[in-house]
Amino acid sequence: MPSSKSSSKTTGNVKVLRKLFTDMQQNPQCNSMLKRCLNKDLFERLINRRTKMGSGLMDVIRSGLMNADSNIGVYAPDPEAYQTFSELFNKIIEEYHGFGPNERHPPSNFGKLEDFIDLDPDKKFIISTRIRCGRSVKNYPFNPCLKEKQYKELEQKISGALAKATDEELKGQYLPLLTMSKDEQKRLIDQHYLFKEGDRFLQTANACRFWPKGRGIFLNKARTFMVWINEEDHIRIISMQDGGNVGQIFGRLQRGIKLMEAGLEFVRDQRLGYLTFCPTNCGTTIRASVMIRLPKLASKKEQFEATANKLNLQIRGSKGEHTDSDEGLYDISNRRRLGLTEYDAVMEMQKGVQQLIEMEKAM
């Protein structure tokens, strides 16, 4: 039987959660998917549920409650949360991915590498191309529930798997944030290699605890292959280089994934594919993007955005999510990651960017 002290704490937490939920629903500035998908009846059904790893509804929706300008507002604190709070996650996933509750994500298929091309051989539009994927290590919760000891365990396991690389393009060095100088961190962040602390959406989701312990980056010599450890997900595998050669970049990513799979077991759900902290990244977890300059399209913003939506592309500012464009420079990527194969996700970006370049040329 719980003590009166713990019962009082639980009651207090429920009161806080109810107040924050009411505030969000009454806030005209809030237009998040969380607000649209979580009505009062569903909120009451979910409020007392917990996963085996101990996460509750507050862990799932805290970021959306604390940030009225959230687009999504929901994170999974552990893999089981997708089942325990399925009524909410299924709504979010259906709205974002167009993936219904009775659909099932297909098996992994990277397809034929020779189908991918150089999108900008004359180097007139594309500054760089980057393809990344996320992975979660089996038997560990996600950031909000990770203990300090588990952060360190994951860091050791993941960096150990990377140290076994024999492929010359994948060989490199692991740099822990804990021992990295501030100058070195700033240099790597400015070069768009390293993640940085301070994203308030992640902070309010409790995803930045014990920072910088257990976090770091693995970099190859050419700075074309890297792995982030314990940023938003346990693992972010990234392949990137200047220009628009999608085939080269996707091939390197595939070899990096195989390297990691040889030493680690990942969380994969039969219905949702690979599970990640943010439901927008489930499924293939693939985000294939180009940093591209489209000044003429940028001057016709409504047409630009409508075309991107039609092509299932996501537009971000030149410095990432929640930023503005810098003189027509954009980060453009595939929007869908769930309900299609890895091949299809990257091909969707390739075909979409081809069309945008043709539009820019015709203006």
Automatic annotation (TrEMBL):
Pfam families: ATP-gua_Ptrans (PF00217), ATP-gua_PtransN (PF02807). SUPFAM superfamilies: Glutamine synthetase/guanido kinase, Guanido kinase N-terminal domain. Its EC number is 2.7.3.3. It comes from Dermatophagoides pteronyssinus (European house dust mite). Belongs to the ATP:guanido phosphotransferase family. Gene3D superfamilies: ATP:guanido phosphotransferase, N-terminal domain, Glutamine synthetase/guanido kinase, catalytic domain. InterPro entries: ATP-guanido_PTrfase, ATP-guanido_PTrfase_cat, ATP-guanido_PTrfase_N, ATP-guanido_PTrfase_N_sf, Gln_synth/guanido_kin_cat_dom. It comes from the Eukaryota. This is Arginine kinase. One of its GO terms (molecular function) is ATP binding. Keywords: ATP-binding, Kinase, Nucleotide-binding, Transferase. GO terms for biological process: phosphocreatine biosynthetic process. The lineage of its organism: Eukaryota, Metazoa, Ecdysozoa, Arthropoda, Chelicerata. ATP binds at residues 128-132, 192, 236, 287-291, 316-321. GO terms for cellular component: extracellular space.
